[in-house]
Please model this.
Amino acid sequence: MNTKQRIAASAFATAFALLGAAGAAHAETYDGVHAITSAASRADVKAEAVAAARAGNVYSDTAAEGAVAFNSTIDRATVREQAVAAANNPLQSLDRRAFYRDEVPSAYKKPSVSFTRQAGL
Model:
């Protein structure tokens, strides 16, 4: 070992020793499990738990809104008719963004023939 290697090794050993000493100075101690010191009775804790459960999530985005009421301008039968028509539409889930230049080819547009079978009378 030459002199440069010895100096480098001793510098490394010194730095390692200093880091070890600094780490020992910041070590934490373990105090064990702390005993529960509560002044509230079981009935008080249960009442607080019930109140907190009924209050809901106070940290959610819609906690302050509650139930939002709205007045519909369409009657129930019309909404049902629209839902049935949408459910029976074979091109309901066709998305124009899935095609080149966002243009739906004419083959996929409203068909002139029905996709459903008709009874042969």
